Design the sequence.
C-alpha cells in the first residue's frame, strides 16, 4: 500500500474513533459561579442540584462549581452568563436590578415585613411570576429559582447606636443605585463595590463599614478587617437567585429543562434548611470573635427610606399591594 494512503487511512480511523467516543460520552459541562466559599449553603445546594442532574441525565450533564468569586464579581458573572461563557450564576437579586429593573421591587428597603414574609412571597405566585418576568426579559437569562439570604444589617468600625451615628461614615453597598440611595437616605455615604473588594477596602480605610447577613460577614473574613459592631437595622431582606444562560437553556430538550426546573425547586428548599443553620452558627462565631451585637429600633430607618420606596416602587404599585397582602 502506498505509504501516503496508509497514513491518510490511519488519520481517518483515528478521527472516526475520536468522534465515536465523543458522542458516546457527549457531556455538557455546566460552569457554575458563586462568590461564596465552598461549604456555604448556596454553593452546596447548587452542587447537589448538579449531582442530581448528572445522575438523572445518565451523565449527559456535569456541573462544575467555581466558588469564592474566582470567575469574577457578580456583575461580571452576570455578563458572562448572558453571553454563555458561564452557564449557571448564583447571585444576589440586588445585582440583577440594573439588568432587569422589574426585580428592584424586591430590592427595596423594608419592602418585606420579615424574612418569613419574604419566603411566603418567593415561594408563591408572585415569586414564580418574577422568575418568569426575568426569563422573558431581554437579559438572556433563565431564572431557575430563589434562595434565602436572611436580613442585611450594618457592620462598622465605629458603633452605630442610632441613625445619626451613620453621619460621615462610608458604607459599602452592592452595585445598584437603589442601594446607594438607601444608604444615603439612612444618613451614611453609600459607596458601591463588588463583594470581593470589601475586605481590602475596609483594611485600607476606603470604607468604614458595610452591610450584610452574618454568614457573609463571617465567611468573607470581613469581620477581621477592623469591624467591631453589628447593628441590627435589618434594612434589606433580599433573596438570592440562580439563573442559567439562555444560550445553554435553548440547547436543552424540554425534558431536560423540566428536570433542571424540578431540581432547582429542590435546591431552593435545601438551601433554606442549610441557611437557617448557618445564620445561627455564624452569628455565634462572630459574637465569640468579639463582634458586639447592637439591638436598635429600626423605625427611624424605615421612615427615612420612604422616598427610596416611593422612587423605585412608583411603577409597581399593584405588585407592592399584592406583596403587602401576602400573609
Ligand atoms: C451576600 C450575597 C452575595 C452578594 C453579597 C454582596 O449572598 O450574593 O454578592 O452579599 O454583598 O449576602 O455583594
Sequence:
Amino acid at each position: 500500500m502506498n505509504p501516503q494512503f496508509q497514513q491518510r487511512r490511519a488519520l481517518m480511523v483515528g478521527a472516526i474513533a475520536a468522534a465515536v467516543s465523543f458522542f458516546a460520552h457527549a457531556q455538557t459541562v455546566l460552569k457554575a459561579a458563586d462568590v461564596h466559599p465552598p461549604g456555604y449553603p448556596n454553593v452546596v445546594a447548587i452542587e447537589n442540584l448538579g449531582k442530581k442532574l448528572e445522575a438523572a441525565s445518565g451523565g449527559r450533564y456535569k456541573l462544575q462549581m467555581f466558588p469564592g468569586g474566582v470567575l469574577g464579581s457578580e456583575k461580571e458573572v452576570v455578563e458572562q452568563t448572558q453571553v454563555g461563557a458561564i452557564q449557571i450564576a448564583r447571585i444576589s437579586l440586588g445585582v440583577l436590578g440594573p439588568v432587569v429593573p422589574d426585580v428592584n421591587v424586591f430590592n427595596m428597603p423594608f419592602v418585606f415585613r420579615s424574612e418569613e414574609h419574604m419566603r411566603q412571597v418567593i415561594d408563591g405566585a408572585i415569586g414564580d411570576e418574577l422568575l418568569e418576568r426575568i426569563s422573558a426579559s431581554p437579559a438572556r437569562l433563565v431564572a431557575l429559582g430563589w434562595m434565602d439570604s436572611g436580613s442585611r444589617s450594618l457592620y462598622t468600625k465605629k458603633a452605630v447606636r442610632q441613625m445619626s451615628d451613620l453621619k460621615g461614615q462610608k458604607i459599602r453597598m452592592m452595585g445598584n443605585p437603589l442601594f446607594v440611595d438607601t444608604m444615603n437616605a439612612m444618613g451614611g455615604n453609600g459607596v458601591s463595590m463588588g463583594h470581593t473588594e470589601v475586605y481590602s477596602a475596609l483594611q485600607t480605610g476606603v470604607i468604614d463599614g458595610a452591610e450584610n447577613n452574618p454568614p457573609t460577614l463571617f465567611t468573607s473574613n470581613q469581620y477581621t478587617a477592623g469591624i467591631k459592631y453589628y447593628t441590627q437595622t435589618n434594612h434589606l431582606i433580599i433573596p438570592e437567585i440562580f439563573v442559567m444562560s439562555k444560550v445553554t437553556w435553548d440547547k436543552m430538550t424540554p425534558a431536560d429543562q423540566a428536570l433542571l426546573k424540578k431540581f432547582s425547586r429542590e435546591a431552593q428548599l435545601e438551601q433554606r434548611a442549610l441557611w437557617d443553620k448557618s445564620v445561627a452558627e455564624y452569628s455565634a462565631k462572630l459574637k465569640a470573635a468579639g463582634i458586639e451585637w447592637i439591638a436598635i429600633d429600626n423605625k427611624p430607618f424605615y421612615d427615612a427610606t420612604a422616598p427610596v420606596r416611593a422612587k423605585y416602587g412608583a411603577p409597581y404599585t399593584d405588585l407592592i399591594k399584592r406583596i403587602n397582602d401576602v400573609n
Observations:
- Residues 254-288 form the longest helix (35 residues).
- The pocket of beta-D-glucopyranuronic acid is lined by residues 35, 74, 91-92, 149, 174, 195, 212-213, 216, 240 (CB under 6 Å).
- The CA atoms of residues 109 and 306 lie 9 Å apart.
- The two ends are 83 Å apart (CA to CA).
